[in-house]
Amino acid sequence: FEALERTFTEEWAAGAGQGYDDPAPIFVVGQPRTGTTLVERILAGHSRIEAAGELQQFGLCVRRVARAPLDAPLARAAAAAGADLRALGEAYIRAATPMRIGKPRF
Fold first, then answer.
1. Dihedrals φ, ψ of 42, to 5°?
2. HSE on the CB side for 31, CA within 13 Å?
3. Residue 70: what pLDDT?
4. Cα–Cα distances in Å, from 57 out to 10, 15, 35?
């Protein structure tokens, strides 16, 4: 967490560049046992949102697009910070599509 906090600062966000503009994904982020599953279920109660569960695709796409090492958290965070955000977004949407049932948001 310290590596993430030191790497993904407000300054990084201001200069990170353009991402991939797709309104479909809704990210619910949190530690285990903090209510994230409840939040997902509440959101999925909406007719235009589907629950996709705890997808692993985003982390896998970060590693692939950023060519981030698996065994070094500091190096992985630095590699991820330098990733092409548009390519990352495109890769994530492609990887998550097979897990979806077709509602506009997930």
1. -65, -45
2. 2
3. 79
4. 25, 25, 21
